[in-house]
Write a structure and sequence with these properties.
single chain, alpha/beta, D-Maltodextrin-Binding Protein, domain 2, 2 domains, six-stranded mixed sheet, 18% strand, globular
Length: 327
């Protein structure tokens, strides 16, 4: 017996109803991938995992961390740029989002101003200006006096060309109208060892791990890159106190972004879950133990922050004529 016209109509109606129901599924209706361009165990990865765990509960779907390392985090960044703008592939990024395109131009493979939709700045990781514990120069004013008097007589280490410590050092030199010699290393660890030994005068080092080295009398502190003095180092002045207000904005940030053209309702949903997570006492405690300064802002505020961040580093990189490292 052949199906009747009414049977076809009924089947079509059922199909349309199913499609409509599927289209109307609230976001998120499946797991979310959060790409991190750094190896597991580093500060960016740890913060991403702390947030993902709490946000998964709020959103009702797992947030799966996917560490796509390599090319100074550009592999992960490019993948998210090319992903569908549906909220299921997100990026947890840092300083390189802006700095890599400034250094590499089109070779970076993405434009931070147009290829992403900012969700929220999670936190900043302040830098601390450190020197050897037994260094003869004990204060930032003394160090800068020497730098202004004798160009290139003061050396500063970093984890590599274009990294946060390098950029902070070059910005300080520009603001102080001094000429200092940059000495790059393959990572913060080797750079700090050279500072401890006294072979390099100082460096800007992430606050994570600083306290143990201070207590062991391996390093001394020149200044902290925070708006207020750090409770763990109450006797160390801020960069503002030694003459450089606003320097705290140079702290490396970690934040979440989506591909460009992601719908506003999805962006706001993820932002809400992230801000709520950052406000919880247990999450705050975990991040503050890392030395992080919690932000948790709106998409509009993060967008404005990223523009300022881009403009600042573009000026520093051009002024200092910083070139990308060639491996």
């Amino acid at each position: 017996m052949k199906p009747s016209l009414l049977t076809f109509i009924a089947a079509a109606a059922i199909g349309l109803t199913a499609l409509s129901a599927k289209a109307a599924d609230p976001y998120p209706s499946k797991p979310i991938r959060l790409l991190v361009g750094f190896a597991a165990g580093g500060p960016t990865d740890i913060i991403a995992r702390v947030l993902a765990r709490d946000m998964s509960i709020t959103l009702g779907q797992p947030i799966i961390i996917d560490n796509k390392t390599g090319a100074s985090s550009m592999i992960a960044t490019r993948e998210v740029k090319s992903a569908a703008p549906d909220g299921y592939t997100l990026l947890f990024s840092s300083l390189g989002l802006n700095v890599n395109p400034i250094l590499l131009g089109d070779q970076a493979g993405f434009n931070p101003k147009t290829d992403f939709t900012p969700i929220s700045n999670a936190a900043t990781l302040p830098l601390v200006a450190v020197t050897a514990h037994d260094a003869r120069i004990k204060t930032m004013p003394e160090l800068l006096k020497k730098a202004r008097t004798k160009p290139d007589a003061v050396t500063f280490a970093s984890s590599g060309s274009g990294g946060s410590g390098h950029l902070a050092g070059e910005l300080l030199a520009t603001l102080a109208k001094a000429k200092m010699l940059h000495v790059p290393y393959k990572g913060n660890g080797p750079a700090l060892l050279e500072v401890m030994s006294g072979r390099v005068d100082f460096m800007f080092y992430p606050v994570i791990g600083i306290a143990d080295n201070v207590a062991a009398k391996r390093i001394g502190l020149l200044a902290v890159g925070t708006a207020q003095r750090m409770p763990q180092f109450p006797d160390t002045p801020t960069m503002a106190e030694v003459g450089f207000p606003g320097f705290e904005e140079t702290a490396p940030w970690v934040g979440m972004l989506a591909p460009a053209k992601t719908p506003a309702d999805i962006v706001n949903r993820v932002n809400d879950a992230m801000v709520k997570a950052l406000a919880k006492p247990d999450v705050k405690l975990q991040l503050e133990k890392l030395g992080a300064v919690i932000v948790g802002d709106s998409p509009a505020a993060f967008t404005a922050y990223l523009k300022r961040d881009y403009d600042r580093w573009e000026n520093v990189i051009k002024t200092a004529a910083i070139k990308p490292e060639v491996n």
